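Operator note (shift B, R.M.): manual run for Succinate dehydrogenase flavoprotein subunit requested after the automated queue skipped it. Running by hand, logging everything below so the morning shift can see what happened. Input copied straight from the record, untouched. If output looks odd, do not overwrite the archive copy; leave it for review.
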Amino acid sequence: MLEFDIAIVGGGLAGSRAAVEIARSDPRLKVALVSKVHPIRSHSVAAQGGIAAALQNVDPNDDWLTHAFDTVKGADYLADQDAVAVLTQQAPQVIIDLEHMGVLFSRLPDGRIAQRPFGGHTNRRTCYAADKTGHAILHELVSRLFQYKVPLFDEWYVLKLIVEEGEAKGLVIYHIPTGRLEVLRAKAILFATGGYGRVFNTTSNDYASTGDGLCLAAMAGIPLQDMEFVQFHPTGLYPVGVLISEAVRGEGAYLVNGEGERFMARYAPSRMELAPRDITSRAIATEIREGRGVNSRYVFLDLRHLGKEKIMERVPFAHDEALRHLGIDVVYEPMPVRPTVHYSMGGIPTTIDCQVLVAHDQPLTGFFAAGECACVSVHGANRLGSNSLLECVVFGARAGATLARYVQERSLPAVDEQRYRAEAERLLQKLIDQPGSERIATLRADFQDTLTDHCSIFRDEALLSEGLAQVQRLKARYQNIRLDDRGKLYNTEIVEALELRSLIEVGEIIVASALQRRESRGAHSRSDYPERNDADYLKHTLAYHTAEGVHIEYRPVDLSLQQKDPERFTPQARKY
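Run finished. Output pasted below as returned.
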């Protein structure tokens, strides 16, 4: 049995930042970082636009409280205000810390870190490294993992989170290249496993974003919070779905419909293309639905007026993506875009110190979560662009510091290695042996189409109810899948089958949560309940996986900043 003080699952920004903080805090601690891909292949590396902080390098009038208000308003008042305060107060220091590590931020002429405007932010506060910010930060953090000699278990898939008697005790992990199984016990476990964009058929997320950590937590009896809030990024490159960063609009690009009109004047006249993502995505979808799209399928993102020099200096990756995928040179032609699934506001509920909460807000001993898989909740019903990298770094560091203290007085838990090893062997052998007729790729496509058709930008009772029924039928079909590869060495079909299990469990919770929230708030837009309903739904959804289906409960939203500044932080109509 493998034994560590701390096991971190996920090698993206949150997981890597936590590991670095633990190594800095107490180099004596034994830390393992487990990931189904190499950390450099984590989806964090694809983040483009930037990371928000009230540094005041460009706008001297900015401050953390304004950043906090923008975040709470952008969240349609569902964000927990104590967590938002932590996020925004610590933001400037974490940027300076990243700079001292060696992250190559873009600069102002005088050498200070540059900052650009971003949707929903009042001030120019988004720090960036051209349009490859996640790449710049993650590579620096991973180099620190090597410097601190953190053991990396890359290409290990977590089969089970071991939870017994209210305590997280360990993991069962599967080595993809060799088929080897190991049981790992630890004094504390941190999940930093990212999002679940692959639940849908068109997404900016990479192929590894299958919600595995969320599924493992749900199957261990832990609720998932606010899973109905799925962010559609307004500008996915049509038809491939890859992301065209908000940085492009931050630098001044226009959204134009099929009639040549900058249509955002109809939806957010004060912010135009820099309205929050939920508003901009609905605006694009509405233009297309009402016949003002281009070829009834998309709108244009037009950069031509920016000029070649600015495009190649500020957003070179967006230029390369359009050229590589569609053969379009954005210096001379507009690019086709439409909304694409991008981010999960919901996740595993945690305290501001990243400890996971179970029923009645009780912390689960030994279990922590940070990053996109967690719901602390700083994004509420809608995340502002450039706050996600910030969340990963702020709460990744916070989780690391918390864990380094937490394990000092703890002993390694008792784990029945043989029991969990035998269970895992049976699970894998069953997948290999079962003589089913369902092909994984076909079932996965059917499931992704179901979620996309029934739980997309616009929703209603009939759509969601039918979607939930279809999900349950697809869940039954999963029991009849067939693998062609019967071997143990690098059997990618086993991984695909396990990831499909994750997608189905997470997708069912998304649809069930959306069905029960009978209002429109942030990214959750109900045509049959078009208004926000604070009286009944200013609260977080808690969804539990059970044998009988998804069980829904609710918990209150923290409104602590309202006491500090009631004029701004009291929930009010959200207009831009």
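Quick read of the result: The radius of gyration is 23 Å. The first strand starts at residue 2 and ends at 9.
Leaving this for review. - R.M.
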